[in-house]
Amino acid sequence: MMFAADNIRLRALEPEDLEWLYSVENDEELWQWGSSNVPYSRYSLKTYIAESRHDIYADGQLRLVIETEDEHLVLGCVDLMDFSPRHLRAEIGILLFPEYRGRGVATKVLGMLVSYAREHLYMHQLYAIVSQKNMKAQHLFERFGFKRVSLLADWLRDKEEDYVSAYIYSFRL
Questions:
Q1: pLDDT tens, residue by residue, 106-133
Q2: If you count Cβ atoms within 10 Å of the first and of the last residue's Cβ in the chain, which end, N or C, has fewer?
Q3: Domain tally, the chain
Q4: What Gene Ontology molecular-function terms does this entry list (predicted)?
């Protein structure tokens, strides 16, 4: 599976992605944005890559690698998760490595993912849960047309062990 725009493409995970995936999944700084706070072994991630069908209906989620088309440089990954086949909606999460942020990559990726969700998965809705502290992500989703629909009070526990509220952003396809 591959989607591309302006030298950025999305592709399925490959076995050679194991090391950077291992570093991302075990980066304690990133745990505050997700729901996991346990380390993953290389073995479990290798098994995940090997056994993933890259089918959101079978796996309930879809992770795609963000990379440059010309040099195949990995910039991060994007996830559709908590997929509901009944309601045809999924949560979206975008992770860009720090050195590639602020370059318009996330906007391109969001556009590709929305198109894919609409045209190939026939989804009805995408949503994102965004920390009140993450102004860049709020601006990204708002610029793209996602609507802030709810506030989740004290939803995320940050690295200082304080609770931070989060917004739900929704986009109807």
A1: 999 999 999 999 999 999 999 999 999 9
A2: N
A3: 1
A4: acyltransferase activity, transferring groups other than amino-acyl groups
Backbone phi and psi for residue 139, each to the nearest 5 degrees, phi listed first:
-65, -40
Q: Residues of 35-65 as b/e, b for ≥16 C-beta within 10 angstroms?
A: eeeeeeeeeebeebbeeeeeebeebeebbbb
Among the listed residues 81, 69, 147, the one whose alpha carbon sits nearest the alpha carbon of residue 105: 69
**DSSP readout, 133-152?**
T-HHHHHHHHHHTPEEEEEE
d(CA 149, CA 147): 6
Residue among 159, 147, 151 at smallest CA distance from 132: 151
Helix (H, G, I), strand (E, B) or coil at 167: strand
- pTM, two decimals, is 0.90
CATH number of the domain residue 140 falls in:
3.40.630.30
In terms of residue numbers, what domain contains 48?
2-172
pLDDT in tens, 66-102: 999 999 999 999 999 999 999 999 999 999 999 999 9
pLDDT at 47 over 50: yes
